Amino acid sequence: MTIREFETYFTRLYLPLGMYALRIVDNADDAEDIVENTFMKAWQIVSSGSEIENFNSYI
């Protein structure tokens, strides 16, 4: 996965995931942290050379 592909996923999924997390934790700051940490972990996997076969499912 390229950086551009990752950015595309991030841009497309950030808000929906944030809204989903907000419904669960009922705190906007915590929801934002959860989503950011999730994307950071995914980026660590991708940048290490490993592939995530289905990024949507992984996230």
Tell me the number of structural domains: 1
Number of DSSP-assigned strands: 0
Q: Helix proportion of residues, in percent?
A: over 70%
Poorly predicted regions: none
Structure write-up:
The protein has one domain (3-47). It is an all-alpha fold. It has helices spanning 3-25, 28-47, 55-58. The chain contains three helices and no strands.
Brief descriptors of the model:
single chain; 59 residues; mainly alpha; 0% strand; elongated
Quick synopsis:
This protein has helices at about 5-25, 30-45, 55-59.
Q: What's the SSE blueprint?
A:
Blueprint: H1 3-25, H2 28-47, H3 55-58
Helix pairs in contact: 1-2
